[in-house]
Amino acid sequence: MLLLEGISNIYKIKILVENCMSSLEKWQIDNDKNGWQSPIAFSNDNVVRKKLPPLQFGNYERKFNVSLRNTGHTVQLDLDTTDIDCDDLPVVSGGPLEFDYTLDHIHFHWDVEHTIDGHKYPLEAHLVHYKTSTGSFRNALKFNDGLAILAVFYDYGNCKENIFKEFVQGIEDVSRNVSCGVPVDGICFCGFLPNYVKSYYTYQGTFNAPGIHEVATWVVFSEPATIEKSQLEALSNIDTEENDHPPQKSSPVQEMNDPSIIYNGNFYAAVRKFIRDTRRYIWEAKGDN
């Protein structure tokens, strides 16, 4: 009798596991169809070319105070909103965005998330904005259009001045202290953007930290900004909660199954890309020799 009951219980557990796996597979398929996965491998084969209105950046030229901290997974810049009127905060609108979105924070991925034509850049920054009408980042996670995330690639180059020079010392201060934060004054967020912002990919995707939230409109600029190799080394040389080095593991790159990615570009953007690619191929060829 006990043997029969044991077999019956094992069979019930087997059915339960199979049902869970079936639900998980269906969720995966539905998400593939809807395009609700980040990050994405961009290529000419999986995009729809479409002319969108220009992106509008409000208060991006102003200087703000931030808190620079080691989250245990990455370096993050949190906007200090103390004594700042809501109308004076950095805001992005236009393009694929139907509403205004207010900047909440910036974090970095040196195990880069997205790829373009199979190429991975050494660094990717995510400028995370929340829908202004929701009032906060936390509230925005409740809405399927709650976040707008601007993704900026960085390539190596010699640059006399860039935004990273303004807080490299702060990175060294927090690199060995998980969750520790230090104030950094006078950050101008336009310095994180590439020189050319009229060319980008956009899609509806997920915000993956912490958890997975299907609430994000992604805008991924096709033109990279510049960072010095020593700056990236300082940025990525941090202690983490797991004490692993390198301290990041990027999310799996997704191949979209339907043409739900929009590419907003023009002939000028294509010329700039051709020049960048040519320079990279020459540089890589020299490296092989």
Describe the structure.
With 289 residues, the chain is α+β, with helices and mostly antiparallel strands. It has a single domain (42-280), classed as Alpha carbonic anhydrase (Carbonic Anhydrase II, Roll). Helices cover 26% and strands 32% of the residues. Strands 2, 3, 4, 5, 6, 7, 9, 10, 11, 12, 13, 14 and 15 form a 13-stranded mixed β-sheet that branches. Strand 4 and strand 5 form a beta hairpin. The radius of gyration is 21 Å and the shape is globular.
- The computed structural class is alpha+beta
CATH architecture: Roll
What do the pLDDT scores average to?
A: 81
Number of strands: 15
One letter per element, helices H and strands E, the order comes to: HEEEEEEEEEHEHEEEEHEH
Helix content: 25-40%
**What would CATH call the homologous superfamily?**
Alpha carbonic anhydrase
User: Regions with pLDDT < 50 over 5+ consecutive residues?
Assistant: 10-36
What is the top-level CATH class? Alpha Beta
The span between the termini is 75 Å
Specify the number of helices: 5
